[in-house]
Predict the structure.
Amino acid sequence: MKLSTLLLSSAALLVAGAASAADLPAKKAAPAAAPTGCSAFGAGFFQIPGGDTCIKFAGYMNYEGSYSGDNDAVTAAKYSQAGNFRLILDARSNTDMGVVRGFARMNATSSSAKINRAYAQIGGLTAGKDGSMADIAGTNAWQYGANLGGGTGEGIKYAFAAGPVTITAGLENAANNNGTYTADKVTNLADRPDVLLSVAGGAGMFSFVVVGASHEAVDATAAGATTQGYAVVGRAGVKLDGGFGAAIFGGTSQAASKYTTDTSVTSIADYTGTDKSTGTNFGGEITYSLGTGTFAVAADQSEVKLGAANQKISNIGVSYAFNLVKNFAIEPEFIYTKNEGAVNSTSNKLWLRIQRDF
C-alpha cells in the first residue's frame, strides 16, 4: 500500500470516529451544591458550600428629602433630595472557642461611599470599627440626634457578664476637640487613645447603661501641653404596656466635650492651658406604638463652656416611622434646633424618608 493511501485511510477513520462521538449524549456536569440555612444564627444566614461559615446579607435603599424654611442663601436651595444605599455583611462560624464573627457595613450615596463598620469578634472581644461605647442615647427617629456620646468607635473592647449586668472595657481613638495651635496651624492630636468603661443591664421593662471615658486633651494655645479630661454619660429607659416607652439620657464632661455636645458647630476647644471646657447634656424621649409604626417625640439640650465662651444647642424632634408593607418604611420627621453662642441661629427642618429594607 502506498504511503499516501495509508494516510488517507487513517484520516477517514479519525473523522468517522469523531462523528460517531459527536452523536453520543454529552455527560452532564455535577449540579452545584445549594447553600443551606444556618438556624443556629437566626433567619437570613446561609452556609457557604464546602465550608463552615454562615453569611447574612442585609441593608437598604432609600430616598431622603428635606426642606428648610430658614435657609435664605442664594447659593443653597431650601430643599434637598438624595438616594442612599447600605450593605451589611455578617459572617459567623462556630469554633471550640465560641462564635467567630466578622461584620462590615458600607453606606453609599450617589457621590461617595464609606465603610462605617468593620470589625472582627470572638466571644466578648471586638476589634475594629464599631459604634462608640459612649453612643447610648438610642433615639427612635432617623435624623434626630441627641449630640450625646460622640466617641470614634475605632479600637478594641471586651465585654463580659457579671450577674445581671454586662461590663465592657475598651480603647477608642481619641475624640479630639483640641483646636489648632496658631504657631504652626496644625490641629493637635492626643498621643493616647481614650479609655472607656460601661455598665449596662435591665430587668423586665427597665433598662440602663452608664459609660465613663478618660480623654487626653491637648493645649490649643501651646505646643505639647496636655491635661486629663473625662466624660460620664448615661441612659435609663422603660417600656410600658400598651406600646408606650420613655427614656431619659444625659451626661457631663470636662476637657472632653465631644462626648456631650455637637462640637462641629463651635470653635470652643477642650483646653487652652488656663481653662478646661465643661460640657453638659440632658434630654429624653417618649415613644408610642401606633398602627404599623412608632410615633416619637424627643428633646435635648447640650452646652459647652470654656472661660467666657459658651455654646448651647437645643433640639426638638417629632417623627412617625411606619411600615407601609413588609420591608417598606415611610418616615416623616420634623426637627427644630436653636443654637445660642457667639453666633445665634434657629433651624426648622422637615424630612421624609422612604426606604426598602432587605
In short: The mean pLDDT is 88. The helical segments are 3-23. The longest strand covers residues 79-95. The CA atoms of residues 139 and 285 lie 7 Å apart.
